[in-house]
Write a structure and sequence with these properties.
The protein is globular. It has 12 helices and 26 strands. The chain is of the alpha/beta class. A hairpin with a 5-residue loop joins strand 12 and strand 13. It folds into 3 domains: 164 residues, 3-Layer(bba) Sandwich (FAD/NAD(P)-binding domain); 115 residues, FAD/NAD(P)-binding domain (3-Layer(bba) Sandwich), CATH 3.50.50; 155 residues, FAD/NAD-linked reductase, C-terminal dimerisation domain (Enolase-like, domain 1, 2-Layer Sandwich). The strands form 9 sheets. Strands 8-15-9-10-11 form a 5-stranded parallel sheet. One of its GO terms (molecular function) is metal ion binding. Belongs to the nitrite and sulfite reductase 4Fe-4S domain family.
């Protein structure tokens, strides 16, 4: 995804320069596809539905491309790469967008049949095949991807379990209170959650293919095992030709997304910026744009990215914003919970009660856009900030989109600002679909669709025109 976004950006930025030649080498059997919505593959979507481009598009863009073309060697002196087929391809600038691979814990028995990972379309095909001869499935890992994988197994008709090493689900994104409610809601959907479990060994089962033996001497029988215990940067190639690496992996980059070799860039999950690897698509897209701008001579910098996220996990709404754990010194926390309704909301604000620092939303994410914009734009909070998350019999206070500066980021995935949306309307966009096509807003994860509509409606209203009715959510 990030590599394809780089190609999009460079094609757009270099349209007037026919001398720029772009070559894409993919180790996979297909061109870029949407990994964010992989779970849709189990709901009837095809590989073609998930495709982000096709051969004709690349041909129209004059982009050379090869699939099944894994790069096995890079000569930094001669400036060429060698593919697994022995082909030698020269470069002036090299972009590493190799992404990451699933971390599989070193558990004895992990290499058995039906022990799989959840990362690519090929992985999904293997999961589907394995599910046909299975009745019970276990996902090892209770993070964001682990819960998506659990949803996939559930859709395939398996009795599904999630095994998590830490005491709660999604420990990176949400706090303990949110984790407890998320566990309850997911278990109510028929998926059993086992936290604080360390798998010692995978052995032959008695009623299923296998059994997981835990360090607390308990066991869990299963037919299929999906590992989703985090990711690791795909950086082995970079190590082999002596680029600077992080202590725990990752290709070190500067603010221009350059590696220790100024002619080689790294973007996405393989890149390490300020000792941090970004595991979301939005930061990767920002890196891709910076690298493309640098290559055509524009001065651009990557200065970090917000890791806030809103999503639905097995139908459960989850939102995480900024300092969700309240680690900022002096931070004040407001918490609201309605357990019968399955709702948990936490808001973290500064010690002077003026600025939003973070939030956790479980079961109801309607306030997500408002809270996020308060934080991103450092807007002063209302006199009673708790009203932002507390239920109200009257009109709930929301942030007036008219008060947002034109620099306010509406779409985190594609870094689309309010000003970009207004500009697209000034240039003739008359529907939200037009705005999406022009700016790419809400074409990534889709979580900004409501806010996009609010900004668009206000802009149309100011122009004295009525937007055409075409508002459609993502096909996923």
């Amino acid at each position: 995804m990030v590599g394809h976004h780089f190609v999009e950006q460079l094609v757009q930025l270099s349209a007037a320069d026919p001398a720029i030649e772009i070559t894409v080498l993919s180790a996979e059997s297909r061109l870029a596809y949407d990994r964010v919505h992989l779970s849709a593959y189990f709901s009837g979507k095809t590989a073609e539905d998930l495709a982000m481009t096709d051969e004709k598009t690349y041909q129209d863009w004059r982009v050379n491309f090869q699939t099944h073309a894994k790069v096995v060697d890079i000569d930094r002196v001669s400036k060429h790469v060698v593919t697994q087929n022995g082909q030698v391809i020269a470069y002036d600038k090299l972009i590493l967008a190799t992404g990451s691979y699933p971390f599989v814990p070193p558990i004895p028995g992990k290499d058995r049949e039906h022990c799989l990972v959840y990362r690519t379309i090929d992985d999904l095909d293997k999961i589907q095949a394995s599910a046909k001869v299975s009745k019970v499935g276990v996902v090892i890992g209770g993070g964001l991807l682990g819960l998506e994988a659990a949803n996939a197994l559930s859709h395939l008709g398996l009795k599904t379990h999630v095994v998590e090493f830490t005491p709660q689900l999604m420990a990176v994104q949400i706090d303990a209170g949110g984790g407890r409610l998320l566990k309850e809601k997911i278990e109510a959907l028929g998926v059993e959650v086992h936290t604080s479990k360390a798998t010692s060994v995978i052995e032959d089962g008695e009623t299923c293919h296998y059994k997981l033996c835990f360090s607390d001497n308990t066991v869990l029988e299963t037919d299929l095992i999906l590992f989703s215990a985090g990711i690791r940067p795909y950086d082995n190639l970079a190590k082999s030709f002596a680029l600077e690496m992080g202590e725990r992996g990752g290709i070190v980059i500067n603010n221009h997304c350059q590696t220790s070799d100024e002619n080689i860039y790294a973007i996405g999950e393989c890149a390490l910026w300020n000792n941090f690897i970004f595991g979301l698509v939005a930061p990767g897209y920002q890196m891709a744009k910076v690298a493309a701008q640098q290559i055509i001579g524009e001065q651009a910098m990557f200065t970090g990215a917000d890791m806030s996220t809103k999503l639905k996990l097995m139908g459960v709404e989850v939102g995480s914003i900024g300092d969700a754990h309240g680690k900022t010194p002096g931070a004040i926390t407001y918490t609201y919970q309605n357990q019968p309704a399955g709702v948990y909301k936490k808001m973290v604000i500064s010690s002077d009660k003026r600025k939003m620092l973070g939030a956790v939303l479980i079961g109801d994410t309607r306030e997500y856009d408002t809270l996020l914009q308060y934080m991103l734009n450092a807007i002063d909070l209302p006199a009673s900030p708790e009203t932002l998350i507390l239920p109200s019999s009257g009109e709930k206070p929301t942030l007036d989109v008219g008060a947002l500066p034109n620099t306010a980021i509406i779409c985190l995935c594609h870094h689309v600002t309010k000003g970009d949306i207004i500009d697209s309307i000034d240039q003739g966009a008359s529907t939200v679909d037009d705005i999406k096509a022009c700016t790419k807003a809400s074409t990534g994860c889709g979580s900004c669709s409501v806010l996009l509509k609010r900004v668009a409606d206000l802009a149309f209203e100011k122009l004295g025109v009525e937007a055409k009715i075409d508002i459609g959510e993502s096909v996923f």
